[in-house]
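Exam revision sheet. Question 4 asks you to relate a sequence to its structure. Input first:
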Amino acid sequence: MFSSGIAGVAHGRSERITEAFDPWKGPCTPLRILYIGEIVGSPGVYCIKTKLAELKEERSIDFVIACGDGATGGFGIGKNHSIYLHKLGVDSITSGECIYYKKDMVTHIVKASYVLRPANYPYGNPGRGWNVFRVQEQSVGVVNLLGQSGFNRVHLNNPFLMIESILEKISTETKTVIVDFHATTTAEKYTMFYYLDGKVSAVLGSHTKVLTADARVFPGGTAVMAGTGRTGSQYSVGGLEPEIEIRKFLTQIHEQSRVTWKNLELQGVIVETNEEGKAVGVEIVREACEVEDHEGTGHSQED
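Answer key, structure tokens:
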């Protein structure tokens, strides 16, 4: 399912993914690619469990990408959640600044080629920032980038320069490329949208966990959307219990955030591409997830 020839990094050493891959040479066939907005805690994972299979069948989805940066407790993603989401039908899991928040992901990401970290992280970090996946008889490239604004704890390479070198490599294997741009500001996202118009199939914004109304296809054939929403509670602060987040702002005293199960939705966007890997359509997804009872307490680090 995965491409070879993509360098992963484990504890500062380069390694190669050794699975055989025959580079794609001919035209693409049209694809329908589902991108799922950031999964927040066990409520978000529950939405994937209950809705993804049905959604794939009803909407004729060929490939699924999901931002998993908050899948475990709202902050980061652990090994078990990444494996479980992959088994549920998520083909590629992207991330952001929280990718190493769970210790077991630091070692797991080296082996899990479907999990991506930001490609512009420091050289030598565990994992990979892009990959090429087999879909039917062709390939889809997925690139994960982190914006420069607001992430002061991370010493990032410039994502605008990084994407150019990545596209030089990825273009030898596929014309269908989806970029997850995990960024804070709308200005930086739109700058990237215009910069990559005509160069990739889609640039989709994550991190803010808000569903925006700007989904469209740019003149060059690149689908864009600044905010792809979140999968989890909609009656919340980014999927988290509002009362706790309010108290933290009022008192400036740290308190552990807690996910909430109120008003669950699976959110995201469907991008349709043509034979040349250009986007020809984009469709916002909002699927309500009914739940009467649940196992999660909201208090566990693994929720």
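Marking note for examiners. Residues 27-289 form a domain with the Purple Acid Phosphatase; chain A, domain 2 fold (CATH 3.60.21.10).
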